[in-house]
Amino acid sequence: MAPQASSRGWVRHAWLLPAALAAAAICLLCWGAWVYGYDPRWLSGSRAWWRPILQTDQDWTLVVTMALLLGGLGAYWWPRRRAQQLTTGVIAVVVLVLVAAVLGTVSYLPCRGQMSRTGMMFWILQLYVGQPPNIYQSVQPGAACMGAPPLALQLGQIDGLGATLIGALAVASVLWRQPLDRLQSRFAFDVTIFTGLTQLTIPLLKQLTKAARSPRAIIVIEPDEDNGLLEEARLTGARVVIGDPASPHILRPIISAVRGCALSHLYALSDKVAENEAVVDEAARILSRYQPDPDRQPHLVALIDDPRHADHWRGLRSGRSGVWFEDALSSAESTARGLVAQVLRTRPRHLLVCGDSTLTLAILLELARQAWEQSELVNAAATGRAMEPDIPPPPDTPSPLPLDRVALLDQRSPDIRREYLASAPAAVLNSLPQVVAHPVRWRDHLLRTLDAMDLAQARGTAVIITESPPGSGMHEAGRVARLHPETPVFVLSASGGALGGAIFDLLHPFEPGLLIEGGVPEDTWTRVARHWHECYRLSHPVPPGHPKASARVPWSELDPFLRQDNILELRSILTEVAARGRQWAPVHLVPPGSVIELSEEDLTAVTIAEHTRWLQRRLTAGQAGENVVAWEELPPRVRSDAFRHLCSQLAQLEDVGFLPIVPAGGPPAAARFERVGHVRASQLTEPLAWTNDADEQMHGYAGDWRVIDDAGNLRTVSDPEFQSSHEPAGEGRWRRVGSYLAWQVSEAVVIRTKEGKATARQGDWVVEAPTGERWPVRDDQFRWSYRPRGLAVDVPALPDQASTQAAASSSTAPTISS
Hints:
Layout: H1 2-12, H2 16-38, H3 42-45, H4 51-54, H5 59-77, H6 85-108, H7 121-126, H8 151-175, H9 177-186, E1 191-195, H10 202-211, E2 218-222, H11 230-235, E3 239-242, H12 248-255, E4 256-257, E5 260-261, E6 263-268, H13 273-287, E7 299-303, H14 307-316, E8 325-329, H15 331-344, E9 350-354, H16 358-387, E10 405-409, H17 413-423, H18 426-431, E11 435-438, H19 442-451, H20 455-459, E12 461-465, H21 474-483, E13 489-492, E14 507-510, H22 524-539, H23 560-579, E15 583-586, E16 595-596, H24 600-620, H25 636-655, E17 658-661, E18 671-675, E19 678-683, E20 688-691, E21 697-700, E22 705-709, E23 714-717, H26 719-725, E24 726-730, E25 733-736, E26 739-744, E27 749-753, E28 756-760, E29 765-768, E30 774-777, H27 779-785, E31 786-788, H28 801-810
Parallel strand pairs: 1-2, 1-6, 2-3, 6-7, 7-8, 9-10, 9-12, 10-11, 12-13, 13-14
Antiparallel strand pairs: 4-5, 15-17, 16-27, 18-26, 18-31, 19-22, 19-25, 20-21, 22-23, 24-25, 26-29, 27-28, 29-30
Helix pairs in contact: 2-5, 2-6, 6-8, 12-13, 15-16, 16-17, 16-22, 22-23, 23-24, 24-25, 27-28
């Protein structure tokens, strides 16, 4: 750090040398003008070394002096070009004004004649408007000097007029900054919009401008012209526009540039979620006018600090469009990602997490997510080795996370663990070792817990302290780090209290923020696309020199065209699935027993759409190669591989928490029906296995109800669902009651009921309970056990085959397709 600081200090003071030389040259000119004014023959009669330098027709003297003066000003401005720009401009004008005044004064004083010294100020002022008096051309005796103007006066005229012009330009730049910034943004090709200037978001803005090809590609829209961070935003080099960031009059000219859609990223980072949603929604309305661009996928990112809200928000907005992505940014999630990466680099076998805060939950979810990703990579590498045993493994062969145990120390730790289990998908939960809750005061038990370990255990343990407010756990963290110097301790600190590494022993303070280890956070969808690529390259290895070797390299080394293709593939899948009438939702928000899987027809349509996108992009780029043909021309094996590949990607999306569901209420044609008929039921005291009409194995559990309807059909029903949909009718019989939504399917679909996977065949019905639970019902069974709401019909208790068929043929129930 010291050599870099020394280098920066030298650059900031480099202006002193040209400034000193310029001052010496100006002093020489002043002395020459003073003597020349009293004795015009002085230059012609002298043979001194300086005589040629001060001749009135000498160009090089003026050129060198001006170069030194401008060089000094430029050297002063350069290291400060992103700081104090206004101050630097004022300094330049003041320097030029003073130099012109000094040069003019020493040139005019000997020639003022009977003019007063005060009146001579008028002559000085005329230097700044480009109309100096011609006193050196006058022939009036005693009133002026004879001969040509000295070099000092010539330079003073240039400096005076230059000061006026620079000042005018500076004023114009301030007055016209906003219109010019807006005009320039219309001609941009690749812009990032940034809204919401706060102490939390400024570091992200600085990093974005550093990473951008040009800081001017970042456009900051700020509604408050008195925001104290505006100048700091301008110092990053970004353009600043004052106005409402949710206004179409502000957004449209930036997004819809002269050359088409120019938006790359939009960061709506106000501390008010409603304002961020308004910005994202307005940008989405503007983008909806465009067709999907194979080379551009705008990312609309909203700041939603609560990770629970952020997870819910991004899940519900997934796949809304084929033109853009929407994502949520949370400081808790970003902090957790950076922290977990730092903790795992210490290779701990045991982890102690202390404190109850939003960050605690985010850390647990991130640990589980990274454990799942790592296990997937390990499995992919094993698959690749089995497929190609002769190909040497890559140098970055993954290994499982070393964690054996995660323990929570806090009085609310059971509640923390309960929320964690309710928030993470099952596949992610199963990848992380069991999280154990210890409902104790962590300040009283952390040191005791470490003291009870042997040296090897303590060395293989890491501690994370997330106590709020930030900094409140620093005292105890310092004590633990000092008494156990080989145990890494990570503690939440107040803003400005975190350093780049350990402050002593292995104590690592960290602070909340949006950056991840100092870098711009990777959005959710890029993370998924990166993981897909890493799994694919490990499971499909090729030898060095193979034509596909360039596509089997790590994500960071991947060609930008291919990297972007992975992201576009994800967007294609999200939007094509949504176009099939599905809505993406967080897995933990989906009611149990309500999932209807995509049909084979749906999966095939999505696969074909993705291949068509892939094909068109390569044809547009002029790339020819294997399988760069229409879907119909692909070999059956390749089509089958593409279908299986899509299924695996949908499974991975579900594993990380995104599931395509049929929205609550079913398809638009769903209708409401009332249940009719009677059943016999008894509550189970032990599990029961049974088979449905499609010969699929189903399962009931202790506490569920064993139900047999009037047609002899057996099934099991969970206790809450049974109690809400049946009324006692005496002697072990129950009356079926309640109003339910239902729709008829036009193709076979699989429903994940609480009892197991059940298939609704073509023509069957899907019934949705008020709780969201769904199950299939055969068409003939549905027609005698459900009636359109409000239609009173007497139903026979035990319908025979003939009456069932008659009811089916005469029913007025509508036929509904999914």
